[in-house]
Specification:
The chain is of the alpha+beta class. It folds into two domains: about 140 residues, OB fold (Dihydrolipoamide Acetyltransferase, E2P); about 260 residues, BirA Bifunctional Protein, domain 2 (2-Layer Sandwich). The chain contains 15 helices and 20 strands. The protein has an eight-stranded mixed sheet with strand order 6-10-11-20-19-18-15-14, sandwiched between helices. The protein has a five-stranded mixed barrel with strand order 1-2-3-5-4. About 35% of the residues are buried.
């Protein structure tokens, strides 16, 4: 059936060319967007206008026809009548234009008997003849996988999808404006790294032909930005793409955009105030207020965000007291009891984190700051001077999702080297996500980095606010082969 439709369309293309019409011209004479024509209807009624758009409907009625054309701004009705069009252009349109074609139309505005603002056409030309039928011509494209695989059809047919990405632009622009207004300098750091760092994740590897050396695609923005604090900048941020060779689920993709900020001479308490203001600005920008919904849960971001202690929550839900010397076997035993799968190469930090995510975090629904993380799960955070088992770290959590991560940054090069070495032992034992020892970064710290607060979040936050999976809010997510 699709081949038959394409053959018909090809015949129409030939008809247009035989009539002397250029079917894929370079130039158009567009007076304005359709929305402007509608908004200024009264002032424009006596003027000849050239409007453009994709044909969305076509209703022939003897010697006349109504149609709708749509550009990005709006849909507008057009009216064709053979008495107002010379050279057989009316019949050429009726016989050879299909839904999905892009056209330029010329005419004057008027209102129909039903009051609809309409352009009465005196001339038209083809801008782009479609050879494949748009989905509504032969099937309703409803399958989520197909919509993601052929996102251009999703955008073409679903205005709500286009609106998501307009909001996503607002989301990132709001973050950029908020940070710039707060005195932060936006910078760009390399995607290729000698040593991937700043997070625990398996990296992608690539080869640089000109330099004849292997690189990793960055898994975080962190270590590059903190090198800038060493260099003398005090407030920096970056919005950039990161790459993690991990699984796909509702909250995870292999490549995505992340924002990270670093502020010298700021502590965790001040960082909390900063993060809450930033989040509220972002939420208002895309939701219009401070209430959102996620998977049936109504979330009030305007209420006070409580501070919840990691150790207390962990003990309450698992019975294991992280304030004492906990053997990894005890953590594994708890996982076995609850039938939680784990890699036998996991160290204490990874096992603790796994149990927390599976047992504790699902119960955190209202927005909160999770604080007081174990040192084993935070190799880049400063230790809590009151308790060396903990670090000065926060996570923003709502509806069991981690939506942001912040630290009082570790700036002691000796401690940092020790933490990296512990991570390397885990890596050598088989943990592919453990961090590597970055000698250059440790050397940078040896020149002195001021105390600082760092914070980051990814586009997972936007997906959360839209109540969508993260790949639904990415224009072209990676997909399995058919």
């Amino acid at each position: 059936m699709l081949n038959e439709i394409k053959e018909i369309k090809l015949k129409k293309l030939e008809n247009l060319r035989s009539a002397g019409m250029e079917t894929y011209p370079e130039k158009t004479k567009r007076s304005m967007e359709n929305r402007e024509a509608l908004d200024k209807f009264e002032a424009l009624q006596e003027k000849e206008l050239n409007l453009t758009g994709r044909v969305r409907s076509l209703r022939p009625m003897g010697g006349s026809a109504f149609a709708h054309i749509e550009d990005e701004s709006a849909k507008i009705q057009i009216f064709l009548n053979e008495q107002y069009m010379s050279g057989g252009k009316h019949k050429l349109f009726i016989d050879n234009v299909d839904l999905g074609d892009f056209v330029e139309v010329r005419g004057k505005l008027f209102k129909t008997k039903t009051g609809e603002m309409t352009l009465q056409i005196s001339d038209w030309k083809m801008l782009s003849k479609s050879l494949a039928p748009v989905p509504t011509e032969y099937f309703g494209l409803k399958d989520t996988e197909e919509l993601l695989r052929r996102r251009y059809l999703d955008l073409m047919m679903n205005p709500e999808t286009r609106e998501i990405f307009r909001k996503k632009n607002i989301f990132w622009q709001t973050a950029r404006k908020f940070l710039s207004k707060s005195g932060f300098l936006e910078v760009q750091t390399p995607v290729f790294e000698n040593i991937p760092g700043g997070a625990e994740a398996e990296p992608f590897a690539t080869h640089h032909n000109a330099l004849n050396r292997d690189y990793y695609l960055r898994i975080s923005l962190e270590l590059g930005l903190k090198r800038l604090l060493v260099g003398g900048y005090e407030k920096v941020f970056e919005i950039g793409r990161v790459f993690r060779n991990e699984g796909i689920d509702r909250e995870h993709l292999q490549e995505y955009d992340m924002l990270e900020t670093y502020e010298a001479f700021q502590d965790l308490r001040g960082g909390m105030r900063f993060v809450e203001k930033l989040f509220k600005a972002l939420i208002k920008s895309v939701a219009g207020g401070l209430e959102t919904e996620f998977e049936g849960n109504k979330i009030n971001w305007g209420a006070k965000w409580p501070k919840l202690d990691y150790f207390k929550l962990f003990k309450n839900e698992t019975g294991i007291d992280l304030a004492k010397d906990v053997d990894i076997k005890e953590l594994q035993k708890k996982a076995d009891e609850l039938k939680i799968k784990y890699d036998p190469n996991f160290g204490k930090g990874r096992m603790t984190d796994l149990l927390f995510k599976k047992i504790v975090r699902p119960k955190l629904i209202e927005p909160c700051f999770l604080v007081g993380h174990p040192v084993e799960v935070s190799p880049l955070a400063k230790k809590d001077p009151k308790d060396s088992r903990k670090v000065l770290r926060l996570q923003v959590i709502a509806c069991a999702s981690e939506l942001g991560n912040g630290f009082s940054e570790l700036n002691d090069p000796i401690d940092q080297r020790s933490r990296f070495e512990e991570q390397m032992k885990l890596r050598e034992a088989g943990d592919k996500e453990a961090q590597m020892l970055d000698e250059d970064y440790v050397e940078a710290l040896e020149y002195g980095m001021p105390p600082a607060f760092g914070f980051g979040f990814s586009e997972r936050l936007f997906a959360f606010l839209m109540n969508k999976s993260v790949r639904e809010t990415v224009l072209f997510p990676p997909m399995k082969e058919k």
